[in-house]
Design a protein that fits this description.
With about 120 residues, this protein is of the alpha+beta class. The chain folds into two domains: about 70 residues; about 35 residues, SH3 type barrels (Roll), CATH 2.30.30. About 20% of the residues lie in helices and about 15% in strands. The strands form two sheets. A three-stranded antiparallel sheet has the order 1-3-2, covered by helices on one side. A two-stranded antiparallel ribbon has the order 4-5. A hairpin with a 6-residue loop joins β4 and β5. The longest helix is centred in the first third of the chain and has 13 residues. The radius of gyration is 22 Å and the shape is elongated.
Length: about 120
């Protein structure tokens, strides 16, 4: 009797992102997983070793599990999922101050943005 085993193709993990701020790395992990890209955060608890280990070596890192997802992961990492870069600046009707698009209130006088513009 001949038994045949299927061997899955070798998959390499690849580091695709690193940042000093864990929240930023976790955001991208969640975003990639929503796009069906399996990934993992490494160095999540290594911050306590800073001083003994160079700080940049302790930063959390985002790794994709399957190297076949690399091109897609890079595409998503280069995107702007929150859309903040597309928001245009606005002028406050109360004081004339210019604010960036992501803000809803004027930093100068506190008046809310007029959304009818």
């Amino acid at each position: 009797m001949l038994i045949v085993f299927e061997i899955e193709a070798f998959k390499r993990m690849i580091k695709v992102f690193s940042a000093q701020d864990f929240i930023e790395v976790a955001f991208w992990r969640n975003y990639l997983e929503q796009q069906n890209i399996t990934c993992q955060i490494k160095n999540e608890y290594l911050g306590s070793a800073m001083g003994e280990v160079p700080p940049i070596e302790c930063w959390p890192e985002l790794w994709i599990i399957n190297d076949n997802d690399l091109a897609l992961a890079i595409k998503f990492l280069a995107s702007d999922p929150l859309g903040e870069q597309q928001l245009v600046q606005w002028e406050c009707l109360g004081c004339g101050e210019i604010s960036d698009g992501q803000f809803t209130d004027c930093w100068n006088c506190g008046k809310q943005k007029n959304n009818e513009e």
